[in-house]
Design brief:
This protein has 94 residues and is mainly α. The protein is built from four helices and no strands. It has one domain.
Length: 94
């Protein structure tokens, strides 16, 4: 299960950055393309975000994460590049 969480963390981080890129770079230049890309990018990011949170909750006891570590893992999902940091810090041996 930890390998699935690792992959989900990486994919969630990538989808977050793609969502920001769509908003910051495509929206000002091509609004029609932005509208077409918003739903599929947003939906995939949303599903990956929910998967990341659920897997973190399931793995909390299995990995013996303390509350502070668990809170850091959850908070990283809303910070750009946060899931990459978590992957390196907590999941590097998976």
């Amino acid at each position: 299960m930890i390998k699935i969480f690792k992959v989900t963390a990486i994919l969630e981080g990538i989808s977050y950055l793609v969502l920001f890129s769509n908003m910051l770079f495509i929206k000002p230049t091509n609004f029609e393309l932005y509208k077409k890309l918003l739903f599929p990018i947003g939906m995939s990011h949303g599903l990956l975000f929910i998967g990341y949170i659920l897997l973190a909750i399931l793995l909390k006891n299995a990995q013996n994460w303390k509350f502070k570590s668990f809170a850091e893992i959850l908070a990283a999902s809303v910070i750009p590049f946060g899931t990459f940091y978590i992957e390196k810090k907590y999941l590097k041996n998976a």
